[in-house]
Amino acid sequence: ASQVEKAKELELKEQFDALRREHTETLQELQRAHEQEKLLLAESHHRSEAALQETIQALNSQLKSFQDRMKRVEESLLRTDYKKHIQEHGSPSPFWEQELESLHFVIEMKNEHIHGLDKKLLHLETVEERNLLLEEKVKTLQQENEDLQVRTQNHLVMARQLSEELQAARGALEKEAQLRDQARREKEELLYRVLNAGDGSPFPMAAGEVPLIAT
Fold this sequence. Notes:
Radius of gyration: 47 Å
Protein name: CCD69 protein
Family: Belongs to the CCDC69 family.
Organism: Ptilorrhoa leucosticta
Low-confidence stretches: 207-215
Subcellular location: Cytoplasm, Cytoskeleton, Spindle; Midbody
Number of strands: 0
Strand content: under 5%
Mean pLDDT: 77
GO molecular function, one term: microtubule binding
Structural class: mainly alpha
Order of helices and strands: HH
């Protein structure tokens, strides 16, 4: 019976150790997966940022090309009007030359202002899109962290329950052993009294041994 009890206790201990190892391995695997996801997110963010920079450069190049074409068209129109004025009125007056210079300056200022607004608008749109993507990733990581915490808590609860069951099983085994010892002692005492009835000799007890009382 003692071997059976030891085997049962050993089996419970092995089950508890196996569950604890499984919990540790699962937690480590989840942590590794979480770290890998963070690395992949960082790499994806860098790639997206590089792609956005390339797109911005391409758009700026297209905008500059368009503005250059517009400038050439405007200058061509000014030259055409200028030549027409010479043909119709002779050499231009100082006032006409001043008007042409003022008009050219205004056109340059407007082109620069438009270019600055386009760059600012593009930058704001890019920042807004990147922030939305990052917010979604943050929400995903937060949900994964919450799931990891729940799974970890569940494993801890299971480990505590198994530990309590193991302690209860040990207590039951110890109680059962005490009851068997008490029954054996009572049986021996009864047998002794039957065999030695009438001589008045007390039942011998081992040194330090005290009677057990079943509870």
